[in-house]
Amino acid sequence: MIDSKRQIAKYITCDYVMSNIAWLLFNIIRFYTPVVNSGYVYLSDFLLSQNVLVGQLFMPLIMMSVYYLSGYYNIIFFKSRLHELFTTLGSVAINTLILFFTALINDVLPLRSENYELIFILFATQFICIYPFRLIITADATHKIHNRIWYFNTLIVGCGKQALKLTRDLNKRSVALGYHIVGYVDIGEGNRSQQLEMPIYKSDNLEELCDRLNIKYIIVSVDDNSHSHLNSVVNMLFPLNCTIKVQSDIFHQLAGRVRLSNIYGEPLVDINSCAISAGGRNTKRVFDILFSIVAIILVSPIIAVLAILIKLDSKGPVFFKQERIGYHHKPFYLYKLRTMYIDAESDGTPRLSSLDDKRITPIGRILRKYRFDELPQFWNILKGDMSLVGPRPEREYFIKQIMQKAPYYALMYQIRPGLTSWGMVKYGYARNVDEMIERLQYDVIYLENMSMLVDLKIIIYTIRTVLLGRGM
């Protein structure tokens, strides 16, 4: 077995220690560099000066923040050596610029070549200290995985011919991929292979099974690749706290395209993650937190005024909460300002709103037109239930209907749902399931082109929509 927490602790501890050493070495080299006049005669006096001591405390923390945002700690195992090299080079380059313009700006020298020399020394010191130790940790982990010393407990969903073939293909490899198959899950295919040697489990209470067996990976390998069957299988697996992989032909059935991250192993596709890089994912989350904090402070007076108007307009609470399905198919409560009369769904059947919906209050129409009703969702963003930009979260009742016609909706579970989305900007609110599916096409496009630049464009278009009152 592999202890993932211990492995990530190795990377973080090593990076932090070596960042401290790198900054200390740079200051020593900086003191003895002829082009820099530190103003001190002795090295000990220079290193114990207030500015250097403060820098020794805070500069490694800045370096670690950049390493986190780069996404280096997101992927603990199966690191590409080339990707690790370029990620480290990029992180060190960014750190060099940040440190130079925050801590060394007073050392700017008359000759441009001398400034370049100072920058190069800072860059080289960091890279030489950081990269070799990262490489040692990664190489050690890769060696242990390939030689079956370390492994991940893995379940195969399916117990037919495809599951048997996959098992044999994984076991006969001279270089292991880390998958230690501990059993199979019978999902009612009806063609169970008699040659399977591991236990076969029922699909009931998979969450308890995964916890008991300490499952890290689930591989979907079913004989029945029909859309309806895959729909139910994938929908069942997403809430589990495991990495879900499917064979490339199955993923093509779901999404119409294939994206591989490991070209040396079996053609398995991770359906938990989307096209955005690990660094982009971290940056997006940090931006969500900062933006939502500022937004909550700014819109609190507006919400207070709207709360008074809502109470004057109709009976009922100011805020409205409703269960929606979010990241990895996990439910959460979405918060909005109430725009409908109480007991709008008194018969218990979920209903979508329409333009002439009698359930909407007079003030509610104004709130919906300018999307003011969604201001409390900044709290959902801060909590981590949602993102500023992402697919619109739906209720389970409608998701089941959508997935009957568009099983690729399951791919939306790869990211947090959003306050706004490309679908909401280009299509707007949906009045029925068919319109939801039409809007879904825009969210699929967003999923394949995620970036902070795309998010910024969507935010700008959303602001334009709000100002023009095109919310309804």
What does this structure look like?
The chain has 472 residues and is of the alpha/beta class. 53% of the residues lie in helices and 10% in strands. It contains 16 helices and ten strands. It has helices at residues 4-32, 43-47, 50-69, 81-103, 112-146, 161-171, 206-213, 227-237, 248-255, 278-313, 362-369, 377-383, 396-405, 422-426, 433-448, 452-467; strands at 152-157, 179-186, 200-202, 217-220, 243-247, 268-270, 319-325, 331-337, 387-389, 418-420. The strands form three sheets. The chain has a six-stranded mixed β-sheet, sandwiched between helices. The protein has a two-stranded antiparallel ribbon with strand order 7-8. Helix 6 links the parallel strand 1 (152-157) and strand 2. Helix 1 crosses helix 3 (50-69), helix 1 (4-32) runs antiparallel to helix 5 and helix 13 packs across helix 15. It is flat. The two termini are 53 Å apart.
Question: What's the short story on this structure?
Answer:
The protein has 472 residues and is of the alpha/beta class. The protein is 53% helix and 10% strand. The protein is flat.
List the helices and strands and how they pair.
Layout: H1 4-32, H2 43-47, H3 50-69, H4 81-103, H5 112-146, E1 152-157, H6 161-171, E2 179-186, E3 200-202, H7 206-213, E4 217-220, H8 227-237, E5 243-247, H9 248-255, E6 268-270, H10 278-313, E7 319-325, E8 331-337, H11 362-369, H12 377-383, E9 387-389, H13 396-405, E10 418-420, H14 422-426, H15 433-448, H16 452-467
Parallel strand pairs: 1-2, 1-4, 2-3, 4-5, 9-10
Antiparallel strand pairs: 5-6, 7-8
